[in-house]
Amino acid sequence: MSTNKISTHRSSIMGISIIMIIIFHTDIFYPHILKMIKNLGDFGVNQFLAISGFSMCYAWRKCSDVGTFLKNRFLRIGITILPITILWNIYVFLNHEITLFEAICTTLTIQFWINGNTFQWFVSGILVLYLITPFWMNLYDQNKILCYLLSIAISIVCLILPLINLFTYIMCFMQRVPAYFIGLYLGKHAIENKQDTKTMRILLWVSLLIGVAGFASNGFYTMDYKWKYILYSVLTYPVLMLLTYLFEIIPANKKGILLPFLGAITLEIYLFQEKILKLSHIIFGTANIMFDKKNIVINIIVITATILIGFFYHKITDVIYKKLRTS
pLDDT (tens digit, 9 = 90+) per residue, 145-196? Predict the structure, then answer.
């Protein structure tokens, strides 16, 4: 399976990723086995980061001006995130859940770096990765070997530091940095239309075996997050290629539109789901509704509302983005 096929199925892979993340963010009282599966849903973040890195290579090919590239990336995120983030932070501040300083820092996406506050941590992380992307692209074009070595070194550092109890408060970001680099390399490989090498195929199978063996030996449910995130990084490449292969062999008339549809509004779903879930619990609690003891109904309502609101919100913000972006 050639890496350039990833481009064809990007939306569907992102759709799979956001479904995993949706499931992870539910608070249904699952039976033990289903809870184990639910707790692996945050692997979707790794797939999303890999696809993001992959996509940045195509965005860079269209426009390699650093200023324009970063403006468009930050504009897309800002237009989508800021209105809801500001409103939400006003709400939680007035509800005495955070201080004014925390509300400002959270809105500016820097609270995560201060104390590891995971409110929209993914946004804080992806903005940093966008910032380093032009440097990575230029280094790759000038000296591929140095770029390889530096990327590997950064990945190793990001994986190891939390294991020795350093920067554990931002561990959910640090140990996922390798996934973004994997996406960048696969994107460059696809753009250059290179055939997958024997080394890549060996790496794919070795990574798959190590990842599966790691989970099997340590247990899916009780595994420490530090090791879980490392295994996520190991599995990012083989799972990405496996999904690409599956979408490649599924007949076009059987693929449907759900996954590409969800893949197009991943950021909006991420933005709304947990907020709607929290507000729904407040409403349900006030109404003293007792029939939904396992939170199944409330989560179905929340997921449905999240997708609908996310879709219409995306339509609005996309119009604004297209008017303001630089071609």
Answer: 999 999 999 999 999 999 999 999 999 999 999 999 999 999 999 998 877 7
Delimit the domains of the chain by residue range: 5-324
CA max distance for the chain: 63
The HSE-up count of residue 222 (CA atoms within 13 Å, CB side) is: 4
170: which DSSP letter? Answer: G
Exposure of 268 by Cβ count < 10 A (0-12 exposed, 13-18 middle, 19+ buried)?
buried
Query: Which amino acid would we find at residue 175?
Result: Q
Lowest mean pLDDT across 12-26, 105-119, 280-294: 280-294
Determine if the pTM surpasses 0.90.
yes
The CA distance from 32 to 18, in Å, is 22
- State the first-to-last Cα distance of the chain, in angstroms, to the nearest integer: 33
